Structures are given as C-alpha cells and as structure tokens.
UniProtKB/TrEMBL annotation:
The gene is ispDF. It catalyses: 2-C-methyl-D-erythritol 4-phosphate + CTP + H(+) = 4-CDP-2-C-methyl-D-erythritol + diphosphate; 4-CDP-2-C-methyl-D-erythritol 2-phosphate = 2-C-methyl-D-erythritol 2,4-cyclic diphosphate + CMP. PROSITE patterns: ISPD, ISPF. This is Bifunctional enzyme IspD/IspF. GO terms for molecular function: 2-C-methyl-D-erythritol 2,4-cyclodiphosphate synthase activity; 2-C-methyl-D-erythritol 4-phosphate cytidylyltransferase activity; metal ion binding. A divalent metal cation binds at residues 239, 241, 273. It comes from Ketogulonicigenium robustum. Residues 232-385 form the 2-C-methyl-D-erythritol 2,4-cyclodiphosphate synthase domain. One of its GO terms (biological process) is isopentenyl diphosphate biosynthetic process, methylerythritol 4-phosphate pathway.
Amino acid sequence: MTATNDGEADMQIAVVIVAAGRGTRAGGGTPKQWRMLEAQPVLAHTLALFQSDPRIAQIALVIHPEDSDYLTAVNQHKLVLAVGGATRRDSVLAGLHALSGTRPTHVLIHDAARPLTPQPVIDGVIAALDHHAGAAPALPLIDALWRGENGLVTGTPARDGLLRAQTPQGFAYDAILAAHLAAVGDAADDVAIALAHGLDVAITAGDERNLKLTTPDDFTRAARILRETMDIRTGNGFDVHAFGPGQSVWLCGVEVPHSHGLVGHSDADVGMHAVTDAIYGALAAGDIGQHFPPSDPQWKGAASHIFLEHACALAHTRGFSITHIDCTLICEFPKVGPHASAMRAAMAAIMGLDEDRVSVKATTSERLGFTGRGEGIAAIATATLVKA
C-alpha cells in the first residue's frame, strides 16, 4: 500500500486485532471489547484506527467463537475473521494464519481494548519497521515500584530500564509467524515471543491516551478522553459540468449511458468532484484545482477517483476519519435513481466506508436555470470528518 516514505512504500501492512478475551474485570456483563463507549462498541473505535488508513491492506479480527452475533455492530471494511484459541498466543497465531492468503510483508498486532491509540503511535511503529524486525510503543515508569505480600510492602525493586508496554506491536510478518510457531507456552505479549526467537525489537514512543480498558474506571476515563479530544469538521463542495459530445456520463464513479457526455479536463465526474472538494474543505486544504491544476496536461482525461483517493489520504494523514458523505446531483436527465445504489457502492469502496455512510441522491431544478434547460449537471456535497 502507498505510505509516507520510500521504505514504507514497499511494505504490505496488515493488522491482527485480538478480541477473543472475556474481559470480566471491566464489568458490565458483556465482554469489554463489545461494551458501548460513547455510542459505539469499544471494538468499533479500535477498528476505525486502521480501517481508514490507506497503508493497511487487511485486518484479521480474532474473536471468541460465541461472539459472532456482535459483528453486526461494527464496520467490517477490510476484515477477515479468525476464531480465537485457549491462550493469547493461540489467538494471535490464528490471526496470522488468517492473513496467509495475502501474505503481507509486515503486521501490526493490537489489543481490541485499546480504542484510543493516537495516530503518531501507529506511525512511529510503522516507521521503525523500516529498519527493525520488530517495533513496539512503550512509556517510561515514573512511580516507584513495590513488592507486596499480605498487605505489606516487602521490597522496593529498581525501576531503571523498565518500561510500560503498549500496542500495536509491529513485526516483519514471516519473522513473527515463525516466532509464534516455534514458541512454547503462552507469553505476556508478542514482543516476548519475538525476543525468545532472537528478533530485535525497537522501542517507539507510547502515549498516555493509549490506555488498555481493563476496569470500569478505565471506561470512564476513555469516555472523557473521547469527548475532550474529538475534532469534528464539516466541508461543502460544489461543481458544475456542461454537456458535450459523448454517449455516457461519469457520475459518482459509475458510467451512465446518455445522449451526451460531460465536458471537463478530467473525466468530468461532477459528483465525485463535489465530494472531493467537500473533503478538502473540511480540512481547509483548498480545492481540486489547487492539488491537480487543469493547466497540467497529466490530468487531462484522468479518472476522478484519483482526486478522491488523494483527498481521503490527506484526511488520514492529518488524523481524520471520514464518517459520512452526502452528495446531491442536480439535473433533469439522465435519471439518477436507477444507478444510485451502484454510485454509493463505488464511492464507498474508494473511500473505505460502509455504504450506509455514503448518500447519493438527485433532484431537478424544476426546469429553471442551466440544469433545467438541460445544459449540464451540478452537484453539491457535504463531508463530515472526525479526529479523535
């Protein structure tokens, strides 16, 4: 997948999310990964960290065999499912095997109960994998350490060189698969298995917000962090193209037969252009013309999905997830209704969204103006972006 530097550009990155545990200490009567956190299951927040990342090709979600009914509550974009085992190591190995069909070069292994991982933490792990077989985020220990027994302090071990481990923990795929296959017994995390197999693991920067939900108090803290850090943006886009010679028009990624074509420097997909500009608008990042100047001959006749993919990648780079798109096509003809479902599917696939987060609809201008006279098509779009 395309990434941010030359080394990362050669990586095919997948993710294993371990979600097979029962999480009884969190309370609530439901496994903690399926409990609600700010109107969504914890796992929905966790999956969203990677589903909108263009560097991530596939996500192996490892679940308990009794939890399949919960899956309807989460976005299944990029997912391949695996059934967890008796130990954490068994579950991770099941996830790694589930990725064998695509054989990624690298894999990130993440706890389902870490739904707030900041983007720089993920970026730091991926960047370190350019030079190391493994990488994992951690935080320094600040508080003094005690040993205790029967309610009494029995010792004060030194904390020098000790770190608090976090996830995602990243590895070269073949190396961590071999390490798991060779391991005996369970381990606290995948770094322990990697070290036992002789892999070097780089330490990257962790973050206090990257907490693992374990107790009821953790849920309260996580909800507070989400409310305090959420950045919601809305952008609008508008575009117009005139009819010209041709036998079809491109609208929201679908070629629709018509007596005319649309005139434009690219393929003149007026709907996709409006959506692209809406995303740029939410980011305060200009418009299509600034990123893809019509004066540049390389964009003549270009497919408009190139522009939309760029806008989506820019949103992700800045830490935003696209949560909803609404596009209205304004024309007397061609009739949009018979093609609206295909348009939603095409746009959703390009943006990595569920179809229920993409709206495409049409209206006429009651025979008024240039659209009413059948001279062209206009489109208006709204994009909602969330940064948490």
